[in-house]
Every structure is written in C-alpha cells, then in structure tokens.
C-alpha cells in the first residue's frame, strides 16, 4: 500500500468504524476522530462467506472447497484441482452484486482446460450453477459464452443460488430462484469453487450514507453523495449501476477528480459525467480471452476495431501483459482513466 500512496499524503494505518457526515468527521477503530472538509469513500466490497451455511467451516476442513475471492482461501484452489480425480466440479455465482462479475467463469474455463491437459476431463462433470438467468449481463457476450460452455460440455444451471454446503456428505444445496415454493436442489461435489455473497462493508451499509440496499448512495454520473454534497464515492462500495471492476473504477476516478476539484472551488455545476463504462476480460483458456466492454445500458462500448465477443489470443496477451503494468504504473498514479481516447481512434477504422 505504501508504494502507491502519493508522497505528500498521510497514511493513517487504521480502519474506519463510523461516519458523522453532519459534523464532518469519521471515527477510527482506535476511537480517535478525523475531521474532513471533503470525503472520498472507496471501501470496496465485503465478502460474506458466513451467509452460506457451513461454508466457513467447509473452507477450513474440506480440501475440495475453495474460493479465489479471498487471500485466505485462494491457495486452496490449485491443490484442489490437482487432487480432483473425477466427479462433479461445481462453480457458483451468488445472488448479490460481486466484484469482477466474470471471475467465477474464468476459473471454471481454466479448470476445465486443466482437466483436459491432465487426462481427467472424461471423468469430470463440470457444472456452472449461477444465480443469474444468463451467462453474462450483456447479451452480446452472454450468447457467445453460453456457446463456449455448451461446446466444452459444461452444464449450466441458471437461477441456482448456493445456500449451504455439507462437507461431511460432500453436498452443496442450492435455492432455485425461479421456484415460487422455495424449492432447493442438492448436488454432490468432488470440487467446489465458491464465489461468496458480497455487500458494501458494514460500516457503510449500517450508516446514513447508504441506500436501501446498503451501498453508498451517490449520483451515478457525478459520483457525489445524494444528500451530503462534500462526500463522493468511487468503486465497488457505491450503488453506481454498472459492473464492479477495476476498469469501472478507473473511469470513475477520472470523473471524481474533476468534480471534486470543482466542488473545492465552490461549484456544484459538474461538467464531468460518468457513462457507466466498465470492462471485464473474460479469460476462457490459457491462451484466449473475450474482452467485454459496456456501459450503463449494457450496450457494448468496444475499443478495438473488431468483434470483441470472439475469443482472441490478442486480448489474452493484453490481459496478461498489458493490463497489470497499466494498473500499477498508470491507474494507481492517476494517469489512466479508461481507453476513451483510443476508442475514438480505433472506431474510425470500424466505420
């Protein structure tokens, strides 16, 4: 963290436990108060493993259960793949907003490829149990992803939300979200990758700053809080209606910096507006990727002059070797706010 904080900034190495927006201060875990003139909140999402019955215990005791979403559990994934000898390999998506909406599929495609390479595929029944009714929120990409899954023999179960795991019997219980009677389905598992339910951190969801769903309540275009005009928000903790990705945060930061500067100069007439741009590199193998880009309306806003809904090695190389330095060397220094300028250039060739 210290390596990316601006030199002239003070890093208070403590967590916030409360807000008092009427008196302009935050309370820290140690009990001290920090007063502010302006406040920017970028607290990310909270992982709620506890909302799935038996999951916390299962992650501790069952080597077949893993999750790439936590530093405490990601180390279990590859050993679980190595130990898998056949049976049901299940990948889940919860019925909540999540960070990087494509990640549950990425690990599934990579795992399926690994089973092929290690001679286990014929013994593997790969299942994608998702709370959504589609493969992806944008139709342009969802249809292609469904075809990929079908062609690779991956069984997709829509409207299935994980509610319980039973390590002692190797069972995962899913609520059928399209069942009016609350019907459930029980699956035996031999490998289980769980994407946990998520929410804004409790410190936001239990405060006056949140909306009814518990997310930071901001104007989706200006990023200013809807009630407290000296508070702004960016990233996953907000109720901005777009997919929660680093690409979205980059675009939002560009808008935020301009609008915050305008506010500090006494103006509420914000010229900079966020259009919902977000991007998700959907890795489908160890050499190919679909680069999804879209806006508030789930309309594709693709940068390159070709159909990005197709699996491409070029997009995999961009994801693997272009995006990491772009993040560390540009985005964290406020030098990258999205590919808008490049899109204008490349789209000239589209037309």
Automatic annotation (TrEMBL):
Q: List the subcellular locations.
A: Mitochondrion
The entry's keywords:
FAD, Flavoprotein, Mitochondrion, Oxidoreductase, Quinone, Transit peptide
Give cofactor(s), names only. FAD
Superkingdom, taxonomy of origin: Eukaryota
Task: Output one GO BP term.
Answer: sulfide oxidation, using sulfide:quinone oxidoreductase
Give GO cellular component annotations, separated by semicolons. Answer: mitochondrion
The protein's GO terms of the molecular function aspect are:
FAD binding; glutathione-dependent sulfide quinone oxidoreductase activity; quinone binding; sulfide:quinone oxidoreductase activity
Q: So what does this thing catalyse?
A: ubiquinone-10 + hydrogen sulfide + sulfite + 2 H(+) = ubiquinol-10 + thiosulfate; ubiquinone-10 + hydrogen sulfide + glutathione + H(+) = S-sulfanylglutathione + ubiquinol-10; a quinone + hydrogen sulfide + glutathione + H(+) = S-sulfanylglutathione + a quinol
The record's EC number reads 1.8.5.8
Q: Which family does it belong to?
A: Belongs to the SQRD family.
Q: Write out the function statement from the record.
A: Catalyzes the oxidation of hydrogen sulfide with the help of a quinone, such as ubiquinone-10, giving rise to thiosulfate and ultimately to sulfane (molecular sulfur) atoms. Requires an additional electron acceptor; can use sulfite, sulfide or cyanide (in vitro). It is believed the in vivo electron acceptor is glutathione.
Q: Know the name of this protein?
A: Sulfide:quinone oxidoreductase, mitochondrial
What species is given as this protein's source? Octopus vulgaris
């Amino acid at each position: 963290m210290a390596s990316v904080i601006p030199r002239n900034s003070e890093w208070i190495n403590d967590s916030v436990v409360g807000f008092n927006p009427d008196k302009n201060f935050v309370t820290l875990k140690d009990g001290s108060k920090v007063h502010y003139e302006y406040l920017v909140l970028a607290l990310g999402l909270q992982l709620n493993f506890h909302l799935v019955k038996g999951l916390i215990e299962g992650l501790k005791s069952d080597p077949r259960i893993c999750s790439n979403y936590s530093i405490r559990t990601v180390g279990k994934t590859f050993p679980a793949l190595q130990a898998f000898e056949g049976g049901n390999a299940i990948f889940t998506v919860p019925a909540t907003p999540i960070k990087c909406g494509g990640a549950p599929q990425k690990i599934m495609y990579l795992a399926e490829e690994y089973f092929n390479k290690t001679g286990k595929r014929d013994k593997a029944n790969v299942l994608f149990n998702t709370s959504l009714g589609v493969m992806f929120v944008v139709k342009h990409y969802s249809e292609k992803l469904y075809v990929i899954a079908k062609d690779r023999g991956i069984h997709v179960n829509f409207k299935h939300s994980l509610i319980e795991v039973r390590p002692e019997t190797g069972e995962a219980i899913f609520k059928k979200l399209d069942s009016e009677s609350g019907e459930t389905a029980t699956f035996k598992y031999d490998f289980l990758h769980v994407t946990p339910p998520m929410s804004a951190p409790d410190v936001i969801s239990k405060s006056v700053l949140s909306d009814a769903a518990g997310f930071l309540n901001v104007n989706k275009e200006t990023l200013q809080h809807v009630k407290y005009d000296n508070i702004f928000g960016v990233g996953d903790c907000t109720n901005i209606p777009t997919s929660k990705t680093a690409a979205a945060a980059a675009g939002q930061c560009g808008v935020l910096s301009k609008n915050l500067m305008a506010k500090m100069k006494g103006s509420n007439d914000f010229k900079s507006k966020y259009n919902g741009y977000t991007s998700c590199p959907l890795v489908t193998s160890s050499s190919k990727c679909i680069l999804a880009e879209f806006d508030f309306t789930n309309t594709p806003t693709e940068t390159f002059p070709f159909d990005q809904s197709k699996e491409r090695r070029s997009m995999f190389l961009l994801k693997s070797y272009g995006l990491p330095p772009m993040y560390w060397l540009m985005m964290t220094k406020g030098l990258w706010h999205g590919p808008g300028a490049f899109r204008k250039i490349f789209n000239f060739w589209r037309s």
